[in-house]
Amino acid sequence: MELNRLVNLLLFCSFSTALFTACGDSSDSPAPVDAERDPMAYMSLSITAVEASSGIGSRVDDYYFEEPTLDNEKISTMRFLIVDKDGSVEHNISISQNPDVMTAKRLFKVKPNETKTVYLFANETSIPEEVINVFRNLKKGERFPVDTYGTYTLSRSSDSPLFAAGEPIPMTEVHQVEIGAPQYDANGNPDPYEATLFVTRAAVKLSFSLNVADSYIKFDPSELSEITFNEVGDVEYLFPCNTTYEPIKAPDPIDSKINRIITAYSVPADAETHSWSLSWSPVGDSNRSFSAGPVYMPETKLSNGSEQPYTITLPVNGVELTAPLPNLPSLPRNTHVLVQINLKGSSMVCVVTVVPYTGVDLTPEFGIDRDD
Length: 372
Hints:
It is built from 2 helices and 22 strands. By secondary structure, the chain is mainly beta. A 5-stranded antiparallel sheet has the order 4-3-6-8-10, with no helix packed on it. β19 (311-316) and β20 form a beta hairpin. The chain is elongated.
């Protein structure tokens, strides 16, 4: 069970015999349902896991997809906000993930023969109250803010990360799901419309490692200063904006294990970049290996057009070393950037691995057990 956790929507339609037979009489048609049943449609929401790909890679190699390494990178809550074709809320419900309890699936009434828009919010406790309340307080039948929902942002101050260590990382997405006419199996039971959806983490994860070779003979660990990542953003959109995925964003077959990378995206026009410094922690007893991070930052886009715009600065033995980060033309959300710094001879060499997240770890699977 892993990371970019996929949302599996089973969409059920159930109508009276009169409506069903109006579609035509055929020997292959399912048996009619109880004529006294009120016309209605059902949606069943659940979560399924995907397997992570294996291997190692970077932006110049084949991608591999990372499993969650910390609990705050997993889903603890999920809000499903289902909106009809006219922009009215049909359902707005939040559920919690308890690793010790299996939560049953639940059917919800929805209108048939239209496109549903499904807004997903995971770990909403880390979204500012003035932002999440706009969505949390929506009632059934109220208008969803279609024209403004994409303008809400998540921001940080210049001296703080976007999310603190251990703080659950929010994940959001918007999907459209086509619901057709009612359909039934041969026994007259609802036959579901099915789609597999995903959520996207609203952060970039940065981690650093430092290895000092024996050939770097003048190294003094007591004089090792902070590592500085130059030019990281201060604000991002709550939902992915103008984001292009590869493969393309579309409902997937049930139980599919499709992972996606982000190839294009937009950030707010007023976004600024600032440097960010982290302290090193020794790894082992050699005084030659160190780590810093992780730290969670907004997705970032620079405007100078450089193919390698990002750099790091590392003061060592009183000398300030600066190096570009290869293979890092952008910082999209839902990725883990691992920077390995090697000091040897008289030089500093950086190796960058960019890891997209895969399915979100939820054990056990969970769905909806009540329609409150």
